[in-house]
Amino acid sequence: MFSILILQDDLTQSGTIKKIIEDKYPQWKVYIARSYTEAKDLMEQYDFGLFLVDIELSKDQYGYDGIDFGKAIRDMPDYKNIPLLFLTVVTDKVLQSLQEIHHGSYIVKPYLPELLIETIEYLARMENNNKELFLKDSNGVYQKVNPKDINYLEANGKNIAIHTDTYVVIIANYSVTKILQMLPVYFIRCHRKYIINKKKLISYDKSTRIINLGHCNIPVGRKYKEALEKILKLWYIFMVILEIF
Fold first, then answer.
1. Element (H or E) spanning 204, and its range?
2. 11: which DSSP letter?
3. pLDDT digits (tens, 9 = 90+) for 111-148
4. Cα gap 84→53, rounded to integer Å
5. For residues 170 and 160, what is the distance between their CA atoms, to the nearest angstrom?
6. What is the pLDDT of the chain when averaged over all its residues?
7. How far apart are CA 116 and CA 6, in angstroms?
8. In sequence order, what are the beta bridge partners of 134?
9. Is 213 within 8 Å of 152 (Cβ atoms)?
10. CA nearest to 38, candidates 14, 20, 21
């Protein structure tokens, strides 16, 4: 169960954010705190995989604000590397704070719900970015695969072929949906049969719906075209305005 804590003293804003997340991921648990103290109390009851914090949070009775909360959780061993997303209108203050708070990112208000979801999905999957995968092949043997080496994955019946520059691994009994959840944030599904590594993308032709990965072309399914183009656009915006440390 993935849980998120929103630290925001404006209940209208926090309620809107909560609804956006729950509409997209109804199985996730989203909690709201209005102050540093409330947030700390919730952390004693639940384990969180992501924090959304208003950096302009009004200081509570002890003088703590959103930045203080970000610094405090980095001193906790269990939360030292958990992603933290600041919601802000003041970028200079955020950039100064992020120099002190590792694994912190920000998004500038006002923002589109789509960008918020894309950012949250990115951060929720950050922990997979540097992990090697151990996947069972068609012979029942576990194979080690480094995600950064993967160009694309192709489903064929109950098997999925993992294509790299130097080798192909056939894994068995993994659905496309399941394998996508295991992969880092830079992988995207573009077809019912294909997942591509966005870092390997050379070009995308909207008219022919063909993605060029340099050494091969991958088709984009009609069902995935609109979502793919939106994600590629958001990915570009995301990489421009979001600072990842």
1. strand 203-205
2. H
3. 888 888 888 887 776 655 556 888 988 788 888 898 98
4. 7
5. 6
6. 83
7. 13
8. 144
9. yes
10. 14
Give the integer Cα–Cα distance in Å for 118 and 132.
Answer: 23
89-115: per-residue pLDDT in tens?
766 666 666 666 665 677 888 888 888
Write out the H or E segment, with its range, that includes residue 33: strand 29-33
Pairwise CA distance, residues 227 & 32, whole Å: 30
- Is 19 within 8 Å of 32 (Cβ atoms)? no
Q: What are phi and psi of 93, to 5 degrees?
A: -65, -35
SS3 160: strand
Both structure tokens of 29: 């648990």
Token code pair at residue 17: 């954010």
Picking from 100, 114, 35, the residue whose alpha carbon sits closest to that of residue 70 is 100
Task: For strands 159-164 and 150-156, give the pairing.
Answer: antiparallel
C-beta separation of 39 from 13 below 8 A: no
Residue identified by tokens 């090697």 is 132
Pairing between β-strand 84-88 and β-strand 50-54 as defined by DSSP bridges: parallel
Under 8 Å between Cβ of 197 and 165: no
**Cα–Cα dist 93/61, whole Å:** 22
Residues counted in the chain: 245
Q: What is the DSSP string of 60-97?
A: -TTS--HHHHHHHHTTSGGGTTS-EEEEES-HHHHHHH
Amino acid occupying residue 87: L
Between helix 222-241 and helix 113-124 the angle, nearest 10°, is 80
Q: Which residues contact 211 (CB under 8 A, 6 or more apart)?
A: 190, 196, 201, 203, 204, 217, 218, 219, 220
Q: Give the single-character DSSP code of 139.
A: T
Q: How far apart are CA 126 and CA 176, in angstroms?
A: 20
Q: Rounded CA gap, 197 and 190, in Å?
A: 10
